[in-house]
Structures are given as C-alpha cells and as structure tokens.
Amino acid sequence: MSEPVKEKKKLDLNRRDMPRQAPEVRRHNFTEVALGYELEMALGEAKRCLNCKKPKCVSKCPVEVEIPSFVKCVAEGDFAGAIKIIKRKNLLPAVSGRVCPQEEQCEGGCLLNGRGAPIAIGRLERFIADWEAAQDSTEVPEIPRLTGKKVAVIGGGPAGLTVAGDLVTQGHQVTIFEALHKMGGVLVYGIPEFRLPKVVVNREVEYLKRLGVEIITDFVVGKTRTMESILDEFDAVFVGTGAGLPWFMNIPGENLNGIYSANEYLTRMNLMKGFLFPDFRTPIKEHNKVIVVGGGNVAMDCARTALRLGAESRIVYRRSRHELPAREEEVENAEEEGVIFNLLTLPIRCVGNGKGWVKEIECLKMELGEPDASGRRTPVPIENSEFIMPVDAIIVAIGNSPNPLISDNTPGLQITKKGTIVADEATGKTTLDRIWAGGDVVSGAATVISAMGAGRRAARSMIEYLNSH
User: How far apart, in whole angstroms, are the C-alpha atoms of residue 240 and residue 451?
Assistant: First the structure.
C-alpha cells in the first residue's frame, strides 16, 4: 500500500505589518513608535513559517536562538513554551526584538525572504517577551549548586548582561561593575525612549538580579579600582565597556558652543531624561535649527529626538541615500516624521556668532566616485560648490572608539590602533590570562545583537575555563 501524499503547505506571503503611531502624532511625543502585535496578528504571522528542515534563520542569528521552535510554539498558542525556548539563548528578547537588525540577520536567512515576505521573527520575539512581562510573574530557571567561582563583568551593556546571564545559570557567582548610575550601557544612554522604552531594559536587568547576579553601579574600573585588584578577587573577568569615546570631524569651529557629540546629546536626553524637562532637571538648550552629521542609526536617533523637541531637524551625510548605513526602517521613520535629508553633502567649517555659539555650517556638495574598500562608492567633492546653512546646534554622529581607561591602566592588555581590545573572535580571550572581552570594546561601534553574540561566545569559553580550573 503506497504512503499517503503529504499535502504541501500553501505559501502565505502576507507579512503582517506592526501597527505604529501615525507620523503626525509621534513626532510630538517620546512614547514608543511601534505598538507591537495584537494576538491575532502574532498567530497569523507565526503560522506562515514553513518549518524548514535546514533553517538558515538560526545560523544567521548571532545568539543562535532556536527560531523555528519558538515560532512554532507561537503558532500553537504556547507562549510560555516560546519564551522558554528563546531564553535558552537570549536573556534580552524584549530588547533584541525591538532594536536588532533582523532584516540583515535571521529574517535575511528566511526562505520566504526570496519572495519578499520573510517571517517577522523580531516582531514575534518582541510579542512573546511583552506577553511574558504582562504575566503575574516571570519564571526563573533553577540555578545549579554554586561552583565557588567568582566572575567580574565590567560594563553593564548588552555584551556584559549576556555574559552575566550565561555564567550565573551555570552556578558561577557574577558581579557586574557599571560606570554609570543605571544598568544597560548603550541601551539606556544611547537609544531613545521612542525606540526602546527604558522600562523594558529595567525589566531585563531585574530578571538578571532574580537569577542572582550582583550589580554595582557608579564604579569605574581603571579609576575606582584597578584591573589588577579585580583579578586578585575574581577567578575570571569579562570586559564589555563598549565604545563611548566620540569621534569628531576635526574641522574649523568645531569647539563652538552648541556642537555636541551624539553620545553627549543622547545621554542627556535618554539616561538623564532631558526630554522630560522640567520634571527632570537636565539642562538642555532649546534649539530651532539642528543639523546631525552622519547616516547611521545613531544619527537617526539624534535627528528624531531633536525633531520631537521642536527643532527643524536635518541629516547631513556625504554619500547618497542608498549608502546610508542606518536600518531602512529607521530612515523611513525619520522621513515620515519630517526629518530633512541633505545627502551628498560634506561639512567643512562651523561658523560662530562672535559670542562663542555656532550660527552657521559651511558645506560642500559631493558626487559619488569609484567604490572604496567597503564596496561603497567614494564621495568626491564638487569644485566651487560651497554653501552655508544657518544652524544653532550641530550633533556629530560619525562613530565612536572605546574609552582607554582600562587599556591605559592594565599593562599587557593589547589594543589595536583604533583603541579596541585585541581578543580572539571565537572565544573572546585577550592577551592577558583570565581576562576576556567582547562587544564594541573589541569590534568598535556595532549592533546590540552582535555585542550579545560576542558575549555568548566569550561566556562559553569562560565556562570551559572555570569548569577546568
């Protein structure tokens, strides 16, 4: 008797869009733009998954979440099962579901991507994380018997949080030392409330506390205490201090008042709640015409923040729209909200008003030449194309390097010419025994999820070391 023919699943190419605040509304507030899936939307989206035999979505996820398994649980309405699967590999799903560039990673590997309708993996991850938060209590896994090994994690950003979670669930005693007064690193100082509400970050940090992670804030390793003394007390150390040293353009007039680094501007707005003045006493000058130099996600965050504070907000970027490094979603959000884009434009001079404040910026028009080493076409100045734009604030968002505090005060810790710590990509091991590193302090400024992936790889190596010593 022949085997019954298995019915082929019909393709559903109707990718469910996530509801968002209307542009004309959200440009005047700091509440979250993306509103999240409703129940029926999440179920419908999850049921589109083909449950591939060889899912490329998993191999393209930096933290190796078992994506088809959790999506299948969502489709079946087993939300508790879905969050349990996600948290085997990712303890920050409410964060990564909001800010991870899924289109380049997991969703980029989806079989349906070739048909223009990849499964909305990030949106489903966010849905499940938010579902868990809405429950009366969050389930905490049973922690094995303590091993007696102590680990110091320096930096409470995404890499450090990931390492802490992976190590504490193996029975190791973990202490995080954070320089700022709030945990989260770039998640709290760098990403605006309308993209990542701080209550979400706090929720994930509280979960780590419940797992048993000790957290010490306002503690600057390299100043408050040396790395050498940390090593005397702890069996292993992970450095995940990020890239908090801003780059500037090095053009005339750049030291005028009214010119901010993106780090300073966003820290004032996000961590210090400048956008809630006068309820929070953070001194922020009201600006009317703001120019943000740069084209990445940080530049979009700055421009969209300035817009919400009532300014005419412009992005100035030396290449074309096609070369913008920011996520397409963030560029579209900025355009919809009213951010003006001055593309193929290069600042060459900042002009003051005679009282120390910036009043104008001089720029050159550019055109694209041959591709550079990165594959992007090189911007070339157009002769005699100089022009002036009036401005009362400039925010420089062209990149960051790691702060040298730890490397300058830790003999033998090798760093690169760019100031990043030299560490093995697969293990996170540095040039010093018992010290690992990962995230932006090694890679330079990158994505939240790539920092989490580096933290996961380092944690794996650290666990192996601690279990054998």
Answer: 9
Say if residue 334 is in the same domain as residue 385. yes
The CA distance from 95 to 195, in Å, is 10
Of 157, 209, 164, 160, residue with least CA distance to 183: 157
The enclosing domain of 373 has a CATH number of: 3.50.50.60
Residues 266 and 372 in one domain: yes
3-class SS at 165? Answer: helix
Kindly state the tokens that stand for 145: 């018997």
Residue whose C-alpha is closest to residue 261's, from 218, 297, 317, 299: 299
Say if residue 163 is in the same domain as residue 278. no
Q: Using one digit for the tens of pLDDT, what is the confidence trace for 42-77?
A: 999 999 999 888 899 999 999 999 999 999 999 999
Q: In total, how many domains does the chain have?
A: 3
Question: Is the alpha carbon torsion for 438, 169, 125, 93 positive or negative?
Answer: negative
Contact criterion met (CB below 8 Å) for 216 and 164: no
Range of the domain at 156: 150-244+401-468
Asked, for residue 208, whether it belongs to a domain, the answer is yes
Q: CA 283 to CA 278: how far, in whole Å?
A: 9
381 & 410 share domain: no
Residues 6+ apart with CB under 8 A from 56: 109, 110, 111
pTM, two decimal places: 0.92
